[in-house]
Amino acid sequence: MEIVCPFCGYQTEREITVGEAISCPWCEQSYIPGPAADSPTALVFVPPPEWFVLQQPSRRRPELSKRGCLVALICLGVVLFVCSWGARRNAQDRASSPPGLVLATRGEVLKVVFSPDGRRLAASGGVYKGRYRWTTGEINVWDAATGQVLLSFPGHPTGVTGLDFSPNGKQLASAASDAVKIWDADTGNELFALSMHPGEQPWRVAFDPRGERLATLSDHGALWHGATTMVVRLWQLPRADEKEEPAPVFFYSFQAGSSKAGTWKLPTLAFSPDGMRLACGRDNTVLIRDLHPDRVGDQAAPAVVLTGHTRTVCDLAFSPDSQRLATGSDDETVRIWGPATGQELLSFDSPRDGIPGYRGIGCLAFSPDGQRLAGGKANNLAIWDAATGRQLHYLRLHSNLIESVAFSPDGKWLASGDLDCRIKLWDLPALERWAEVRQGER
Questions:
Q1: The CATH number of the domain where 362 resides is what?
Q2: Closest CA to 216 of 228, 232, 201
Q3: Do 202 and 101 share a structural domain?
Q4: Which of 43, 51, 208, 231 has the lowest tally of Cβ within 10 angstroms?
Q5: Which of 13, 68, 71 is nearest to 39 (CA)?
């Protein structure tokens, strides 16, 4: 006899008696068939009161054991305790933070730099949308004493990753993925842009101490995806009364991102204060070029290669006398080198605070007297004795990664910019008094 399932329509033939409950082999529903009205040889489901569905297929829910519940509750309690403890400690630090200014921006802060006279503070970055896309770039200039905004303009369509004042303070150089541009630092007007090679994306800029040359760092490949070719170019800048376009003096290229020692990050670029050396990070090493005019051999070849870090070098900074070079790395160490010889002079660990993998030194800066070294470690700011590596201060005001730090030329202020659209201007003399008071309270 033909039987039709009322739930899925599956048809089968078998011998049954009226009133017998059967289970559909296709949908596994149970029902009691009855005679069809149009065919005496077919049985279908007809819903009179005396005929009904016997049962629905049951799906047993997994049961969580008491031991599993206990473990889950303990883990949740530990996470809540750590979060509340960290939040309470950060709140206490913010409440008792030393005097200073907090400057706000529209987007993430990627670079901060003081003007040579210390009267202005400039910062670059942009509004980040995620997935390597930007809404706009951003360049701001403030009065360093009052925090008043003097200039604010996009500058580039994407995040501005490089920024530097010219030695006379009259110009600003900026770098983003679209171009390298030179701006009037007083008006914000664009003076000129460098003619980059097709396919190059510039990321870093640095004026030499005399303001005659500009170094740029760009890439020639799929940035963020494996190895890429980086290009450093040194440009001869025109004088104020000249209308000639800047011309590249020399360039050199190298592979970056090929090291397996940690996650690759965008290399940094810096002139020594005497203008005789140019340092650039490459994975977990640093390449130093000798720019002495009487140097024998290929100027594009590195004179010194610093090796010692086990993970990516995130930032580097020359001391004011050009005799030391500090490097911060994702291996959670700071190393100080002799740039002329490549000899390691000092190495010390960063504070073991924070989440593993996010405790590297992301940015560095020497104080003008060369006695202190400041560095951003995740969202915390550390200041060390540059001669011994002893930690002097450890501050937790920021709520997101610190991307850049800079000392004012007189050494009285320290600026730190983060990805939370904030810049903190630390009053260093007040910081010393604040630290003495806190030490006395303990």
A1: 2.130.10.10
A2: 232
A3: yes
A4: 51
A5: 13
* Measured distance CA(377)–CA(361) in Å, rounded: 5
* 3-class state of residue 210 by DSSP: coil
145 in Cβ contact with 165 (< 8 Å) = no
Q: Which domain holds residue 266?
A: 96-441
Amino acid at 78: V
- Which pTM was predicted? 0.77
Residues 48, 141: one domain? no
Point out the domain boundary residue: 34, 59, 84: 59
Side chain identity at residue 385, one-letter code: D
Q: In this structure, is residue 343 part of a structural domain?
A: yes
Contact 375, 382 (CB under 8 A): yes
Task: Give the residue-averaged pLDDT of 124-145.
Answer: 95
**How many folded domains does the chain comprise?**
2
d(CA 269, CA 78) in angstroms, rounded, equals 42
- Specify whether 409 is located in the same domain as 321: yes
SS3 25: coil
The domain boundary residue, chosen from 14, 40, 59: 59
Residues 6+ apart with CB under 8 A from 385: 371, 372, 373, 391, 392
Tokens of 369: 């007297």
What is d(CA 182, CA 195) in angstroms, rounded to the nearest whole number?
12
Q: Mean pLDDT over residues 363-370, rounded?
A: 97
- Which amino acid, residue 82? V
Q: For residues 367 and 409, what is the distance between their CA atoms, to the nearest angstrom?
A: 8
pLDDT digits (tens, 9 = 90+) for 174-229: 999 999 999 999 999 999 999 888 889 999 999 999 999 999 999 986 555 567 88
Within a domain: 353: yes
The answer on 139 and 45 residing in a single domain is no
* Partners of residue 102 on adjacent β-strands: 424
Q: Is 89 helix (H, G, I), strand (E, B) or coil?
A: helix
